[in-house]
């Protein structure tokens, strides 16, 4: 009992102990706060990097070998792939998509801006033809005002089969949410359920142009507004090996915003049939997008199974492996993480490096505890001698000084954890207050395309930090406590 009493008394009466408590408080609070922000950035960046990517994408190669060694090539129609996909219960939705690259040109005033990239070179624009269940969506669009008045969420459900599975872009990607997201500079489409509906402001003297939806950054940078016409120019391969050009005028229906500046700067969406017609039937589709019922549970396994089954059916191409077996060419079936693995890995590495660097603060606070306890052992030699003289064992004396380190760790960790969690929870309020106080913008929301500073407090991370603080403090307290236990009571009393 005396050990707890003495350790607590030494802690309260010696003010330098509070320096150690403060050091642990700062270390633990900073670790929790910054790692929570980094975790929030990781999750938000994952969502931003994913953009409109589906869970899986199937892009068959044009040539290769099947499992029987015969020549294999992708089918011109997506029907065989879709049929096999919907035979798997893990697939919730799938839709074909046609992707092509082109240039855009407007009237004489805008042509140069439309054609030139940021460095003055020609900038390619990605044309994406998507599949939407227009007749069914028309019915939903008509009912949308009534649903909104009743307070029901506007979620596209048209085009789904009896088992709830669908074959349209809205069901496989986040395109619908990109259309509804609050624009920063661009202009929304009239009705997100019908994005390729011509704007009411559109007037034409001749044949009405088909509608397209542009990325917000692209539309804003080109000073376009809904109702403006642009001409899309592309090239097509010919059977004789030469190339021909194709062009067509489209009307801008509005913008979408994914939150990823690079994607919003280079993408134009249109109806797949319109893009296929522009390409003169050269291709029906480029890839099949797949959404699983549970990506975390089924994603990786479904990729492996689909790759094996499609290769066996000759729907994707393969070549000879090292042992002479037929293996699928890489990249034909891939998850969305495969497409962004380098960037996601970089963010994870930054989080780990940040944790390692910030952990040095715990080491510094541990050295502080070591210095404080070392000085205390030197100053309390007479007290140690008296304790030993009245019957205290070396183990009891060592426990007393270890308890001082324990109290430092307990108070510092408790206050630091509370401060770090509160700071991470109210980081945006703190940032706004500091910005107003200092007169500077600490977090520029336009740079990161985040509406607020992301923060994600992970309970296991908090527990690991608390355990690390306790362990390091007790380790640094062990040496002074051991020295206190080895003090000779006769020498200690004689020298006082």
TrEMBL record:
It is found in: Cell membrane. InterPro entries: ABC3_permease_C (IPR003838), Lipoprotein-release_system (IPR051447). It holds the Pfam family FtsX. Residues 356-489 form the ABC3 transporter permease C-terminal domain. GO terms for biological process: lipoprotein localization to outer membrane. It is a multi-pass membrane protein. Its main location: membrane. Keywords: Cell membrane, Lipoprotein, Membrane, Transmembrane, Transmembrane helix. It comes from the Bacteria. The chain crosses the membrane at residues 20-42, 352-377, 397-418, 462-482. GO terms for cellular component: plasma membrane protein complex. Belongs to the ABC-4 integral membrane protein family. LolC/E subfamily. This is Lipoprotein-releasing system transmembrane protein LolC. It comes from Rohdeia mirabilis. The gene is lolC.
């Amino acid at each position: 009992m005396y050990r707890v009493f003495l350790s607590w008394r030494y802690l309260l009466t010696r003010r330098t102990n509070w320096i150690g408590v403060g050091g642990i408080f700062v270390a633990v609070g900073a670790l929790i706060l910054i790692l929570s922000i980094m975790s929030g950035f990781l999750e938000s960046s994952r969502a931003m990097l994913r953009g409109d990517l589906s869970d899986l994408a199937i892009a068959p190669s044009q040539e290769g070998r099947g499992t029987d060694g015969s020549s294999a090539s992708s089918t011109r129609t997506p029907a065989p792939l879709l049929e096999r996909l919907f035979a798997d219960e893990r697939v919730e939705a799938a839709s074909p998509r046609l992707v092509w690259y082109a240039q855009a040109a407007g009237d004489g005033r805008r042509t140069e801006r439309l054609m030139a990239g940021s460095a003055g070179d020609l900038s390619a624009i990605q044309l994406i033809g998507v599949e939407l269940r227009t007749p069914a969506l028309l019915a939903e669009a008509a009912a949308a005002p009534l649903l909104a008045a009743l307070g029901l969420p506007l979620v596209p459900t048209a085009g789904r089969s009896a088992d709830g599975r669908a074959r349209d872009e809205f069901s496989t990607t986040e395109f619908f949410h990109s259309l509804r997201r609050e624009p920063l500079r661009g202009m929304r489409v009239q009705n997100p359920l019908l994005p390729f509906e011509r704007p009411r402001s559109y007037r034409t003297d001749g044949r009405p142009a088909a509608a397209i939806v542009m990325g917000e950054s692209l539309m804003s940078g080109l000073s376009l507004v809904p109702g403006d016409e642009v001409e899309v120019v592309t090239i097509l391969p010919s059977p004789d090996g030469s190339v021909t050009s194709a062009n067509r005028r489209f009307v801008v229906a509005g913008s979408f915003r994914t939150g990823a500046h690079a994607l919003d700067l280079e993408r134009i969406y249109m109806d797949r049939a319109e893009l296929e017609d522009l390409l003169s039937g050269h291709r029906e589709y480029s890839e099949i997008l797949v959404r699983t019922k549970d990506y975390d549970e089924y994603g990786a396994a479904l990729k492996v199974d689909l790759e094996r089954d499609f290769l066996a059916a000759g729907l994707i191409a393969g070549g000879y492996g090292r042992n002479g077996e037929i293996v699928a060419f890489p990249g034909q079936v891939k998850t969305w993480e495969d497409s962004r693995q380098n960037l996601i890995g970089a963010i994870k590495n930054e989080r780990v490096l940040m944790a390692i660097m910030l952990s040095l603060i715990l080491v510094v606070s541990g050295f502080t505890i070591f210095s404080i306890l070392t000085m205390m052992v030197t100053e309390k030699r007479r007290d140690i001698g008296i304790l030993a003289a009245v019957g205290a064992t070396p183990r009891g004396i060592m426990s007393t000084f270890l308890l001082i380190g324990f109290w430092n760790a307990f108070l510092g960790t408790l206050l630091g954890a509370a401060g770090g969690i509160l700071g991470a929870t109210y980081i945006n309020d703190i940032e706004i207050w500091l910005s107003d106080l200092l007169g500077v913008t600490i977090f520029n929301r336009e740079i990161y395309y985040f509406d607020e500073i992301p923060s994600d407090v992970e309970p296991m991370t908090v527990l690991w930090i608390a355990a690390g603080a306790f362990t390091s403090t007790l380790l640094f307290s062990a040496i002074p406590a051991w020295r206190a236990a080895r003090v000779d009571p006769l020498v200690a009393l004689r020298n006082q």
